[in-house]
Fold these 2 entries.
Entry 1:
Amino acid sequence: MSNLLLLLIVLPAIAGLVCYFVRSSSVRTLTVTATGAVLTAASLALLGQGSFVFEASGLWESLVTVLDFALLFVVLYYGFKLKNLLIKVLTVTQIVLLGFFELFMLDHGVSVPALMGDNLALVMVLIVSIIGSLICIFGIPYMKEHEHHLNLKKSKQPQFFLFLVLFLGAMNGLVLANNILWLYFFFEVTTFCSFMLIGHDGTEVATKNATRALWMNSVGGVALVLGIIFAYLQTGTLGIVEMLAAGPAAGALLVAVGLICLAGFVKAAQLPFQSWLLGAMVAPTPVSALLHSSTMVKAGVYMVLRFSPMYEGTFLSHGIALCGAFTFLACAALAIGQSNGKKILAYSTVSNLGLIIACAGINTPLAIIAAVMLIIFHAISKSLLFLCVGTIEQAIGSRDIENMRGLFKSMPRTAVVTIIGILSMLLPPFGVLLCKWMALEAAADHLFVIVMLALGSALTVVYWARWAGLLMGGRRIESTPEKQPLFTRGPLMLLCAGALVFAFATPFLYREALVPMFAAAHAASHGNILDAATGGFAIYPFIMLIGVGALFAMYRALRSDVRRTSPYLGGAHVGDIEDGSFLGPMETAVPYQASNYYLGEVFGELRLTPWFNIAAGGLIILMLGGAL
C-alpha cells in the first residue's frame, strides 16, 4: 500500500524534476511515458486493494507542514514580482491564519491518518492517473509543434512538463488526503501549478490570466483555511473521516463546511469565479485539457462531494443545489453565443461542473451516483474534445468552429473523432445524457432546481448540435490520409474508444459497480431507491438504437458527395453568381459569407455575464447565510 501511494503521489514530483533538470527530449519523452504507464498501473492496483486508511510517519507530517509554508512564501514572492496587491494580501492572510493555527490552536500530540481511500477517492485516482497521463503524453509532440510556431530559441518544455506531471501527483494527494491540512497543501500545489502553466508562454495576455487565476484561487485558499480552523474547533480533529462520521453538521460546524464548499466553488470555477478558467484558455491545449477534465476543476467538485454527508438535509445543501443548477443554466446560455471552440468547451465545462455540484446539493444516493458518473463521462469526453481542438488549431491555425468547415477533407480522422466527442456530450447511448436524466429524476422534489436543469439541458443541445452539424455538413468523399505522430494519434484513439465503450457499458457501470459502491451508506434511510430509480436504463435497447442511428447518419453525412450551389441573391450579384459577391453599400462589391447564427444580441457574453455574476454572488451569500 505504501509503495502504491508513493508511486501515485511522489513519483510525479520526481518525474517532473527529471524533466526539468535532464534537458534531453528523448529522456523527457521516456520519463513522461513511463510515468503515465506506472500511474495507470498503480491506480488500477489501488482500486483492487479496496478501501483503506494509511498512517504516515511524523517525518512526513513535518515535511508537509514545511512545504506548505514554503509554497505560500513562493506564492507571496510572485505576488511582489507581479505587483499584485490582492495576491499579497490573500497570501499573507493564509500564512498568518495557518501559522496561528499551527502554533497556538492545534494539538500536535493527536495524530490522524494522513491518507484514506474510499470509493469516491479511488474513482478520482483512476480518472486523474489514466486520463491525466494520456494528456501528458499527448503534450510531447504538441509542445514541440507549439514552440515551433512561437519560434522559441530556447525550449521551455522542461519547466512545462515539470508542472504538468507534478499536477497529477498533487491531485492524487488531494483526493486521497484524510488529514485536512494535507488536503489544503495539495489544494495550494494545484493552484500554483495552474498559475505556472497558464502563464507558460510568457506573453502579456498569458501573464494577465495566470495572475487572475492565482489571486482568485487564493480566495478559495483563504476560505479553506478558515473552514479548517472552524471545523477543528468544533470537532477537535483534522481527520476528514472522523468529521464525516459525526453526520449532518449544525451551527459553527455547518459554517465551516460552507467555507470548504466555497473553496470548492472557486476551484471548480463556478459563477461568479468562472473568469479564471475562461482566461486559462490562453495556455497550451494540454494545460486546458488537464485543467478542465481530470485535475484542477475536478478538485473543486470533489471537495463539495466529499463533505456532502455533513450538510445532508440542511439549508446549505439546498443552497448548493441552487448555485450549481444556476451555473449549469447560465453557462449553457453563454456557450451559445461563442464560436471559439476552446471557449465553447470552457463554458460547457463550467456548466457541467455546475450540474455535478447541483447533484451534490440534492444529496440523495441517486444524485450522488449521478454526480460520480458525470465526473467519469465528462472527464473522458471533455479531454477528448480539448485534444481534438488543439490538434485542429495547430493544423488550420484557428480555434473558430466556422473555420472547421471542410475539415473532413484534410483531417478525416480528427474530424470523425471530434464528432464522436461532441455526440458523447449530446446524444444517447452516451453516459452524459443518461446522467442528466438521472439528475432530473433526483431533482424531482426541487422545483427551481429541476426547472433550471431542464432549461440548461435544452440549451446545451443548441451549441453541441450546431458544432457537430457544421463538421458533418458539406463534406465530400475524397479526403487525403491524415498523418499524425503516435503520441498524438494514440491518446485521441484511446479516449474515443473509452467514450464508445463506456456508452454501451453505462447500465453495467451503474448497477454492478456504482450502486454497490455508494448504496451501503444510505441503505437504512433510503431503502431500495437506487434499484427503482433506473431512469433511462429501462428503455436502454431503444436508446442504443437511437445512438446507432445517429452514428449511421454521421457516417452517411461524411461520405456523401454534396454538390455545392451558389446562394440566390435576387439579381444583386456582381458579375457571374459563382464569383460570390453582391452589390452592397456605396455601390461596392461585398463577398457573401455563410455562417451559423450565434444570437449575440440575446446570448452575448458582455451583456449577460455581469447579471449572471450578480445573481450567482447573491445565491452564494444566501447559501452561506443560511448556514449561520
Entry 2:
Amino acid sequence: MSGTINSALLKKMFLAGAKNLDAKKEWINELNVFPVPDGDTGTNMTMTIMSAAKEVANAGDPIDMVSLAKIISSGSLRGARGNSGVILSQLLRGFTKVMKENDELDIKLIAEACEKAVESAYKAVMKPKEGTILTVAKGMSDKARELADAGCDDLQAFIEEIIKEGDIVLDKTPDMLPVLKQAGVVDSGGQGLMQVIKGAYDAFMGKELDFEIVSATGNGPSAGVTPGADIDTEDIKFGYCTEFIIMLNKTFNVKLEMDFKAFLESIGDSIVLVADDEIVKVHVHTNDPGMAIQRALKYGQLSNMKIDNMRLEHQEKIFKASEKAAAGVDDGTGLAEDVDVTIEACGDAKQEAKKDNKPQMEHKEVGFMAVSVGEGMDEIFKSLGVDVIISGGQTMNPSTEDFVNAANDLNCDNIFIFPNNKNIVMAANQAKFLVEDKNIIVIPTKTVPQGITAIINYVPDMTAEENEAIMNEEIANVKTGEVTYAVRDTVIDDKEIHQDDYMGIGDKGILAVGTDIDEVVISMVDEMVDDATELISIYYGADVDEAKASELCDIITDKYGDCDVELQFGGQPIYYYIISAE
C-alpha cells in the first residue's frame, strides 16, 4: 500500500465518500432528535457534498491537486445547505487549504489538513457546541496528529485508527448533549461525516465502487418518460441550446463564476457551468446566444461552440434523448448527465428573457429577501414589501448559492435577508462573503413569525445599521410554536411521545404532546402566553380545513380576551399550525 495519496486517488475517495453519504442520507435523517417528519441533516449534507461531487466527476482525468482542491472547496461552499451542510463545507474548505499546496498527501500532511479542516469549521460557528459533528471531526483530527507525531508510517493503519476514533467519539455524543441521550440517538451530523470518511476509505482500499454521480435533488424526469415528449414546439421558452468552452485568460474565481452563472440565469435556463483553472464548460438554453457568447468573451477565447435551434429539432431531440436514456450514453461533452433536457415555453429573445425570467428592477437603496414555505406565507411576505421569496424552510433548506444568486438579481445597495429558520441562518451568513458589491445584512430570524415581525419593524428613514439593531431587538420578543406529528416513539423533555402523536414544538423544546390536535394547540399556546403577550397570530397549514382553523381561533380568542388574535392562511406543509405570541 502506497504511503501517499495522489490527486487521482483522492478524487476517487471524495466521490466514494459522497456516494456513501448519499446512500445513507435517509438513515441519517431519522437520527433527528425531534421525531418530526422533516429530519433533514442527511439531505442537507448530501446536497452540499454532491454540489462539489458533480463538478469533480465532470472535471475529467488527469486532474491535479490544485484543481481538485478548488472544485471541492468552491462547489461545497456554494452548495452548502443547513447548519450541518455549512459545517461540512467548511471542513472540506479547510482540508483543501493543505491539499492545494502539495502534489501528494502523506500522513503528516493529512494530519495538518485535518487540523485546518477543524479550525475552519469551528470558526464558522458562532457558538460551537460539543457533542456535534464538530466534536467528531476534532476527535479524528486529534487522533491523526497523535499518530503522525508518533511516527506512524502505515497509511492504511493510520486511516483505520482515525475512523475507529471517530466512531468512539460519535458514540460519546449522547453523553455530551443530554437531548441526544434522552432521544436515544447519536449526533446525526457526526454520523454523516463518518459515512463520508468510511466511503473514502473503501475507495482507498481499492474496493470496486460506482463513482457515477447523479443529481441529489431527485427532481429529474421520471423513469420511463421521454423528457419533453408531451411538449409542443410552440411552448418552448428558450429556443437555442447553446454550448461552448471558454479557454480562460484570467483567474476564474468563485465570485466571477457565480456572477457569470447569475447572468446566464437572467437570459435563459437549463444552465450547466463546470470550471477548472484553464477552461470553463458552458451549457444554456436561451433566446439570445449572442449575449451568452459576448459575456463569455470577457473571460477568454471560445472553442467547441455549438448552437441548436430546439424548435426546429424538437422531435429529433426527443428521439435522441430517448435513445441515450435507454443506453446511458454520454455525448462526449461531459455535460449529458447534468443537462435538464426538459423544454419549456418560449417567447421573443431579450424581451421574453427580461419579462418572464429575471425582470430588471430599478435601483433602490434597500431590498428584502425572505425564506418562505407555503402559498399563504409567500403572499404575506410579498404584501410586506419583500422583493425576493426563496422557497425553503424545514423540509428543504436553500443553499448559499441560492442566496448569492438572489442577491445578484437585486439592484440594491443594502439587502436584508430573513432566513426564518435556525437551520438556514449559517448558509445565509456565508453569502455575505460571496457578494462583494452589496451590503448583505442577515437578520437571524429562526421562524417565519420572527421574519414577519422583523420586516414590519423596518423604518425607511433610518440607516441600515439602525434598522438591523431594531429588528434584532424586536425578534427577541417573538415566541413561536409549531404543531406537527411524531414519526417515531421517543422521550424528549420528559414527555413520552408515540408515533403519530401531535406535538407542539416551541423555541426551546416540546411544549405539548397528545392525540387531539386542538388540545395540543391550546396546551402549547398556554405555555407561550404570559402577562406581557399582546398579540397571538395563527397561521394554518395546507392540511388544515379553514373552518376547523376558525373554530380553534375562536376558542383561543375566548380564552385570551386581553390579546388580539389573528388567523391567517399559511399554506405550509408538514406543520398544521405555526403560532406566534408577542
